[in-house]
Amino acid sequence: MAQSSEAGDIRPTTFSDALGERYLSYAMSTIMSRSLPDVRDGLKPVHRRMLHAMRELRLDPSSGFKKCARIVGDVMGKYHPHGDVAIYDAMVRLAQSFAVRYPLVDGQGNFGNIDGDNPAAMRYTEARLTEVAKALLEGIDEDAVDFRETYDGEGDEPVVLPARFPNLLANGAAGIAVGMATSIPPHNVGEICTALLHMIKRPNATIGKLVELIPGPDFPTGGVLVESRDSIVEAYKTGRGGFRLRARWHTEKIKGGGYNIVVTEIPYQVQKSKLIEKIAELMHARKLTMLNDIQDESAEEVRLVLEPKSRNVDPSVLMESLFRQTDLETRFSLNMNVLDADQSPRVMNLQEVLRAFLDHRHDVLIRRSRFRLGRIEHRLEILDGYLIAYLNLDEVIRIVREEDDAKGALMKQFKLTELQADSVLNMRLRNLRKLEEMEIRTEHEALSEEKAGLETLLGDETLRWAAISDEIGDIRKKFGEKTELGKRRTEIGEPPSDVVIPLEAMIDREPVTVICSAKGWIRAAKGHLQDFEEVRYKEGDKKRFAFHAETTDKVLVFATNGRFYAMGIDKLPGGRGFGEPLRLMFDMPSDHDIVSLFIFKPDRKLLVASSDGRGFVVTEKDVFAQTRAGKQVLNVSGGNEAKVCSPAEGDSVAVIGDNRKLLVFDAAELPEMTRGRGVILQRFRDGGLSDAVMFDSAVGLQWRSGERTRTETDLRDWIGKRAQSGRLPPKGFPRTNRFS
Rounded CA gap, 697 and 682, in Å? Predict the structure, then answer.
């Protein structure tokens, strides 16, 4: 069957190649047309199209408002063929003073709040541009930037805005593309302008000097920046890093000698309602035992009142516990991944971002100057024709009245250009008065002077940078630190000192009984149980570990892989059910088991040993690591595994093997290490280590035999040197070859 010619060009290709080609196209579209801002104007396409559409609707700051639905419709129909919800959400964010440091949209109506409440529907709200947005658009009609066709080819849209305002750093940006992301915090525009002016004078300014002028981000919700200066410099030097931001708070005295803590500013992008909800959850879970209550007394300004349980509570300790457990302290990442002037995505440092803005302003100045020069030359040509007409007014009138081709006659008689002739013929009779001639001569002189100035400007780079400096100075004056909008809101603080929070301050100290079954199911029952026989287990399971503890204690787990795992007892499941599998709480391999489980005591020492008879002494504080992966202490390999973990208390060591040989030697022969295989404790002809214990020779060696505890003080027959084989144990020693 012949292939239809209407099918077009059909090329055989592998599925992976076709998929890769299409995914690459999608990725590039996401990077360039959706997620990453342009370094020159700091805008993504949706924001740029929105501002351009609002300008086309003449929504200047001095004009009236228009319905947001009308604006969204224009943006969607003419420039941005995407969902109306996405466009409206972008507009709402540009109008929120708590989300954008220098809002680009002036909203009228409900545009949401810091609690996270949704804005009203776009049919109810209205908007117009702000002065900042006007500065971004200034000169767009003067050939300042390139335009391209819209998606349907029926109109044009700007590739980038002229951007007299340094929007990228001032308002920041955030976005996730395919394989890359951007995260730029907002900064103070007054400080940015100061740094730009410094770079004009000293193009090779160091990052350190620029950080002196721009000491850090300036978030719209204020707060206190508690990052060290070295970290800030390094972040701006590489274009990657992060900033720790804390809420601003103070204490207020109340009757009775007590106090309340009042939070007046919360970190950027933290929803107040969710923050309060989180604090309430922690209070209910008894994780904030120093805090008695929290009240939201916010109106237009944030005001969270924290009531401590006692006036003896140190407010700095209370706040430190809140900083560690809630979003009263957050970390804002810095990743200055932007599209450069060639539309290539790359990570820039602070100096490169500032330089890109200055270069853009230089290009805009040249293009606007050339555009203005062209307009002046066009107008001067017309004015020259007018002046010729005024000098020969009677002859011009005669030609117009008598000649059939007045235009040609004028051009021939007075050597006028076609433009001049058309202008003279289109002149109104009222303009023939003497006063009008004087005004034309005055305009001609002014334009000639302006033309000379522009030609000088275009020929002298120093003058151009001086003009750019004046523009930046105007922006600093209009939006800088001396204005209400431009005052720095985020305080540059010092890195917090290590405030030691007592464990009991974080958790209620309550008695519990830790129970762990033979199959590794663990729980913490309330109170100190006295009769362990009444504890129920799953069918086929039984007791293995059970001991009394407090909720402020930590539990240490030693596994057969030689790793120690740690967890707070307050995090263990309650005692109503059968508990939860301990191995699921850590990254413990399924083919390994628990060797020992006990309360963590940092100053205590432990004897650890493996099945091949090697071991050493280690201090508990050296094995503690409260992570899911735990901490490797005893190295085991091959078919060996960790076998023993017992308190290292006493002057003698007793070791017994699977071959039922007992050896006792001086504890001084056992080294203290932090990690390793250890030394040989006992040699075995067959089998391996069964158990090991450290004891006090003056008390004697003890072991459990049924329900009784036996003690042997005469150990002369079994005393030897480390790494010997040993002898059969005393009569009555358990057949399990275990001391306990």
Answer: 19
pLDDT at 109 > cutoff 50: yes
Amino acid at 578: F
Residues 178, 30 contacting (CB under 8 angstroms): yes
CB-side neighbour CA atoms (13 Å) of 137? 24
Q: Does domain 601-740 have CATH number 2.120.10.90?
A: yes
Joined tokens for residue 306: 């924290």
* CA pair distance 96, 86, nearest whole angstrom: 16
Return the active site residues: 124
Confidence at residue 1, expressed as pLDDT on a 0 to 100 scale: 42
Indicate the pTM of the whole model: 0.69
Distance from chain centroid for Cα 575: 39
- What is the length of the chain? 740
**Which tokens go with 698?**
């003056």
Q: Residue 630 gets which letter from DSSP?
A: -
Q: How many CA atoms lie within 13 A of 565 on its CB side?
A: 23
Predicted local confidence at residue 6, as pLDDT: 55
Containing 702, the helix (H) or strand (E) segment is strand 701-705
DSSP 8-state assignment for residue 337: E
3-class state of residue 304 by DSSP: strand
What φ, ψ does residue 369 adopt, rounded to 5°? -65, -45
Check whether 504 has a pLDDT greater than 60: no
Class of domain 32-165: alpha beta
* 3-state class (DSSP) for residue 470: helix
Angle value at C-alpha 280, between 278 and 285, nearest 5 degrees: 95
What phi and psi, each to the nearest 5 degrees, are found at residue 541?
-115, 165
CATH class, domain 248-327, is alpha beta
Q: Could you tell me the residue ranges of all domains in the chain?
A: 32-165, 248-327, 509-597, 601-740
